[in-house]
Amino acid sequence: QKKRRAATARRQHLKSAMLQLAATEIEKEAAAKEVEKQNYLAEHCPPLSLPGSMQELQELCKKLHAKIESVDEERYDTEVKLQKTTKELEDLSQKLFDLRGKFKRPPLRRVRMSADAMLRALLGSKHKVCMDLRANLKQVKKEDTEKEKDLRDVGDWRKNIEEKSGMEGRKKMFEAGE
Hints:
Elements: H1 2-44, H2 54-100, H3 115-123, H4 146-154, H5 157-164, H6 166-177
């Protein structure tokens, strides 16, 4: 038991010592980054001194615009380089998957699409395809059965009730009674 206690106490002591070292290293890195930032700003951004005359102000504005344009060009170039490298990385990772034979399934989303829209998507917008499923069906004539004839002769009972309901129906019954 004493060995276990000693081992755990030693582990805890080592752990706390490592955490203290890590904290001091993080503080040193933060201070180094701050110094590096200050040096960069001092080198690339000299302190601004505003001249008194109008012509000197215009020259200063022209210089600032030239610097802005150069910075924008650099930013654009770095963005293009970044896009190229990300595209190359994607292509290389796809080649790796192809070489290994393991294919990553893309996440699929459910999409509601009509048959016409699906055919248009498959065949392209050039082809006008109308998929009317009812157009190809045969038309069948309905044969009159005896029951339907009898119902037609008797008449629709709902029709009689609608005629007799309400004030108009009572008026007709009253007039028929006279």
